[in-house]
Write a structure and sequence with these properties.
By secondary structure, the chain is α+β, with helices and mostly antiparallel strands. Helices cover 41% and strands 23% of the residues. The chain has a single domain, classed as Aspartate Aminotransferase, domain 1 (Alpha-Beta Complex). A hairpin with a 5-residue loop joins strand 3 and strand 4. The longest helix is centred in the first third of the chain and has 18 residues.
Length: 139
């Protein structure tokens, strides 16, 4: 049986290895910043999720077909063209924060950001906090 400490240690090692594998230094630096900001905001250790997503915490969501699934509360993925930042967008005030954020492309449940210098760091951190407050954790 694996302990929570062993799992957290393995998860942290997987995240470090994933970030070390990034070849674009700018994307790697932005990813390290997101890692620190999201860990601070969530109080959770990072964990690798499918599709090369670094996620923090988890909650139970209902899929369109009615099935229940665990999903991260917040997370990010450094993709080839941009960073994908996963946040919950169905909270009061999202549109106002999004309007102040800066240059990004919103989509359902995520934001596409070319580089962190394109957005306001403080507003992004406020989005993390508001998103985290939207759902109860199942951790």
């Amino acid at each position: 049986m694996t302990s929570k400490v062993d799992e957290a240690s393995r998860d942290a090692a997987e995240v470090r290895a994933f970030l070390a594998s990034l070849h674009n230094e700018s994307k790697a630096e932005d990813s390290r910043k997101l890692l620190a900001w999201m860990a601070e905001a969530s109080g959770n250790a990072p964990k690798m999720w499918p599709e090369n997503i670094v996620g923090f915490g988890s909650y139970e969501k209902t899929e369109p077909g009615g099935e229940k699934a665990n999903w991260m509360r917040i997370g990010f993925s450094p993709r080839k063209r941009e960073l994908v930042v996963y946040v919950i967008s169905d909270f009061a005030g999202f549109a106002d924060l999004r309007a102040k954020l800066g240059r990004c492309k919103p989509a359902k449940g995520c934001l596409y950001i070319k580089r962190l210098s394109d957005v306001d760091e403080d507003i992004l951190k406020q989005l993390f906090t508001a998103s985290l407050a939207t759902h109860e954790t199942v951790d």
